[in-house]
Write a structure and sequence with these properties.
The chain has 417 residues and is α/β, with parallel strands linked by helices. 45% of the residues lie in helices and 20% in strands. The protein folds into two domains: 215 residues, 3-Layer(aba) Sandwich (Rossmann fold), CATH 3.40.50.2300; 160 residues, Response regulator (Rossmann fold). The chain has 16 helices and 16 strands.
Length: 417
């Protein structure tokens, strides 16, 4: 069943009045296709709404309040496409935030946003297939993502295995665009790092058991297990793995960086597990976002994609401001470069920063958005680069084990080529 949540601009307008900002007398809608029916997806949607609230506090976009119309993708490609079609065809949005998983974002891009001329900004889809599409001109410049490609996670996984001295690894991967991409990259990167991939096994959705797949992986006698899965199937697969005597030496993709996965598997069984993720740079803007998030939600932004979701929303809204009223999706996409210009006026990731950006853009200038993930810069394919982190689970969430700067990440990736 589709779930639709509409965040009304009325509340945002009241907030604006309480902070001394004039309430807007018009409303502009943006769409968001995100997996709100899963535990790890709801915070991603909530932080996007937080960004919208801050923009409305700053007076909205083009003098109009922003209303984010949110539809649940259920991490299902068909549901995601239906959600995106409703947002574009029924709500008339020119900007779509989402999806999260590459397997949902890809069909939305190919069958909804590109044919309709709508800009799509994803917080979390990391498959390198999007890069190839952009290089072939098939995204028409409408696709952006604030999350680095799977190449970073794959390389960091190889580094973890090499640093731990593991000589062989089996892979369980989700059988979708993202998982297939990860499996191919992991095989190449691990081999380059001197780590044998003993077997690579696909995991399909909604199976009652993964015993056959886990038995195949276990039969290859690896020293460790790499998991490129989401929490639901990841939990089932790990339970099967451990029940059959599999090692606790595990490398986890960032998709498993969730309390849901930790709690359902049991922290006591994850003592040998290390995860990888892209990371925010050690800059003031990232620290400021963490503080603002903690003040708003009462916890640190430890879940996957939270900083990226915030930046995706703010950048999209900045681009709408730069493009002007009645701009098309293509116009808005073209304006992204005006708000992520390394030579532009620096603006912060908050209401004050957005208000400052509006002034600069109105005067014909460009801005350099300093966001939750640092100074965001897109290449010609709509991709970004990022630092990386190795993490482990704790009682309260996750804990950083190692941080690698963007320079260190690029150097390690280059060493694998």
């Amino acid at each position: 069943m589709k779930k639709t949540l509409v965040f009304a601009a009325v509340a945002a307008g009241m907030t604006a009045l309480s902070t001394g900002v004039q309430a807007q007398d018009c409303t502009t809608k943006i769409g968001a296709a995100l997996p709100t029916s899963v535990d790890w997806g709801r915070p991603i949607a909530e932080v996007a709404q937080f960004a919208v609230d801050q923009v409305n506090e700053a007076g909205g976009v083009g003098g109009c309040a922003i209303e984010m119309v949110l539809r649940d993708t259920q991490v299902d490609p068909k549901v995601g496409v239906d959600a995106a079609k409703a947002l574009v065809d029924l709500e008339g949005v020119k900007v779509l935030l989402g999806a999260v998983s590459s397997g949902v974002s890809m069909p939305i891009l190919s069958s909804v946003t590109v044919p309709s001329g709508v800009m799509q900004m994803s917080c979390c889809s990391s498959s390198t297939a999007f890069t190839r599409l952009a290089e072939e001109g098939k995204t028409k410049g409408l696709w952006f993502r604030t999350f680095a490609t799977t190449a970073v996670q794959s390389a960091m996984g190889a580094k973890v295995a090499a640093d731990k001295g593991w000589k062989s690894v089996a892979i369980l991967y989700k059988n979708d665009d993202w998982g297939q991409d990860m499996a191919k990259l992991i095989a190449a990167d691990f081999a380059a790092a001197g780590v044998e991939v003993t077997v690579s096994v696909a995991i399909n959705d909604a199976q009652p058991s993964y015993r056959a797949e886990v038995t195949e992986a276990l039969g290859s006698q690896p020293e460790a297990l790499y998991l490129a899965l989401y929490p639901t199937e990841g939990t089932s697969a790990v339970r099967e793995w451990l029940s059959l005597g599999g090692t606790q030496n595990m490398i986890l993709a960032n998709s498993l960086k969730s309390d849901e996965f930790r709690d359902n598997v049991g922290l006591q069984y994850l003592g040998g597990a290390l995860g990888t993720d892209t990371a925010s740079p050690r800059v003031e803007s990232a620290d400021a976002f963490k503080a603002a998030y903690q003040a708003k939600f009462g916890s640190e932004p430890n879940g996957p994609g939270l900083a990226n979701s915030y930046d995706a929303a703010i950048i999209a809204l900045l681009a709408m401001e730069a493009a002007g009223k009645d701009a098309s999706g293509a116009d808005i996409a073209a304006a992204v470069s005006k708000v992520t210009d390394p030579n532009g006026t620096a603006v912060t990731a908050d209401a004050a920063g957005f208000k400052s950006a509006k002034t600069t853009l109105a005067e014909g200038g460009t801005v350099m958005y300093q966001g939750a993930t640092g100074n965001v810069r897109f290449d010609v394919n709509g991709d970004v680069s990022a630092p990386a982190v190795v993490w482990k689970f704790t009682d309260s969430g996750t804990e950083e084990v190692e941080y690698l700067s963007l320079t260190e990440v690029d150097a390690f990736i280059a060493s694998l080529k």
